[in-house]
Design brief:
By secondary structure, the chain is mainly alpha-helical. It has a domain of 61 residues. Helix content is 57%, strand content 0%. The longest helix is centred in the middle third of the chain and has 33 residues. The relative contact order is 0.08. The model has no long low-confidence stretch (mean pLDDT 78).
Amino acid sequence: MNSPRCCCREPAAAEELRPPSPLRRFRHATAWIVPGAIVVAMPKCPMCVAGYLALATGVGISFSTAAYLRLLVLALCLAALAFLAARRVAALLSKRSWLQEPSGARKTKPPPSPIPPASLVD
């Protein structure tokens, strides 16, 4: 039976040392590259967006629709980049290597005492 992973338990040595697979590394890299490349390559002029869309799909759109489409694509790309950055910061903070005590020891609760407190003894 697999028990759920406790946040207080140290990770197993195999989990800690296992390198990510090539597919996972590729997926993480493209997750950052694709939205960034779209933001960089997005034309400033909404008319250019309408022209590129017409060339790529054969669908013509109005100037105002192209302007809204451009803003929507930029907002989605920036939101994706912000999400990726927040996820990366959360992963770094979850390690808390720089927040631990200088000795590196974790604070844990002491084991329960086998002797009951004096207030509970008759």
